[in-house]
C-alpha cells in the first residue's frame, strides 16, 4: 500500500491508503460512461425531453450539456491542484472551510444513497417487465420485485467490493451492449418517418418556456458526473486525467443524447399522448422502424446497462463516504479499505443496503411500484446535487482569486453554471407541480437539514475528543 502525496494540508488522498496498482484513463472513462447510463439514458431522453421541448429537444439537451461543462470548469480548478478521493466534498472543504463542507456532506452523501436506490428500482422495472412478457406470472408480484432489488444490490456490492478492475471488466460490456441496437432502431425509425430538420432548426412551435423547462429536465442527465473525480487518486496521473475524464464522459454522453433527439424528436412529437400514458420510447422507435422483435432484447440489455450504472455509482460513492468518515462526519468504520482490492468495504455495504431496501420500503410501506419509485427517486437525487454544485462554483471562484490569477473567462463560465443550478433549484420550489413530485424539493430540503444537524453533532463530539 502507498499513499498519494498531496500539495495541501487537509487534502484527503494523503490520509486514505490507496492501492499501488493504478487504473488507466480509458478504463475509468468506461466506468464513467457506465455511471452516466449511456444506453438507458439515451432511450429515456428520447421519450422524456420531447414532452417538454418538442422540436427544440436537441437544443434543450445541448444547453444542458453546456451548463454541465461550465460546472466541470469549477471541478477542474481543484483537480489540477489537488489529488482527492472525496470529489466535491473535499474541494468545498479546501476552498470554503468546515461549515460549507458540512452542508455538502449532508446533501451529497444522502444523494448517493438515493441514486443507488433509484438505479436498483430502475433495474427491477426492466427485469420485471421482461420476465412478465416471457410468461413468468409472478414477475410483477411485490414479493418477487423486492427479492430482485435485494439480489441485484448484493451482486453490485460484491463487484464494487472486488475493486475497480472487477467493476470495469463487467460494466464495460453491460453498458455498451444496448447501444448498437438502440442506434439501429433510432436510425431505421428516422429513415421511415423523417427527421424534419427544418422544424427542429427553426424550433417550430417551441416557446421560451418550453425550451427552459426542457433544459432543466435535461440537466438531470448530467448530474453526478463530477463524482468521477472521486477516483482521481487511482489513476496514473490524476491532476491531468480528471479534467480529461470529465470532459470526455460529458461530451460522449451529451452528444449521443443530442443525436438521438435529432433522430427521434419528430416521431415522438406525434406520440406525445402515448408517451404521457406510459408507452416506452423503445416501443415507439421499434414500431416505427418495423423492428418490433428488437424491443425485448433492447429492454433486456437496457436492464443490464442499468445494473452496470449501479456498480459504477457504488464505486464513486463508496470513496466519497470513505472520505467523509476520515473527515469524521460519519463513523470510522466507513473509512476502512480492503487490503487486497482497495475498495472501501464499510461504505460499499452501506450503499448496497440503501440500494436494496429503499425500493423495498417504498413498495411495502407506501405501495409504490418500481416504475413510480424510479421516477420519484431519480428526480429526488438530482435535487441533492444542486447545493454542492453551487458551493463548488463559489469555492472555485474563491480559489482562482486566492491564487492571484486573472481569469475572467473561467470565472464567467463558472458563474453561468452556478446561475443555472440556482435557477433549477428555484424552479423546483416554485413550479408547484403538485402531488409527490411537488413534495420532492421539500423532502430533499428536510433530509439535508436532518443530515446536517446529525453531522454537526458528530463534528462537535469529535472536536471534544481531540
Summarize the structure.
It contains 19 helices and no strands. Helix content is about 75%, strand content about 0%.
Tell the overall outline: globular
Number of strands: 0
Q: Please write the string of helix (H) and strand (E) elements.
A: HHHHHHHHHHHHHHHHHHH
> What count of helical segments does DSSP give?
19
Largest pleated sheet: none
Structural class of the helix and strand makeup? mainly alpha
In percent terms, what proportion of residues is strand? under 5%
Instruction: From the alpha carbons, calculate the radius of gyration and give it in angstroms.
Output: 21 Å
Helix share of residues?
over 70%
Uncertain residue segments: 1-11
Mean pLDDT: 82
Structure description:
There is one protein chain. This protein has 466 residues and is mainly alpha-helical. The protein has 19 helices and no strands. The protein has helices spanning 25-35, 38-53, 57-79, 88-96, 98-133, 142-161, 164-176, 178-193, 197-201, 208-219, 238-269, 272-276, 281-289, 295-326, 345-365, 370-384, 386-402, 408-430, 435-465. The longest helix is centred in the N-terminal third of the chain and has 36 residues, at 98-133. The protein is globular and about 65 Å long. The protein starts with 24 loop residues before the first helix and ends with a helix.
Task: Write a concise keyword list for the protein shown above.
mainly alpha, 466 residues
Q: Which helices and strands, and how do they pair?
A:
Elements: H1 25-35, H2 38-53, H3 57-79, H4 88-96, H5 98-133, H6 142-161, H7 164-176, H8 178-193, H9 197-201, H10 208-219, H11 238-269, H12 272-276, H13 281-289, H14 295-326, H15 345-365, H16 370-384, H17 386-402, H18 408-430, H19 435-465
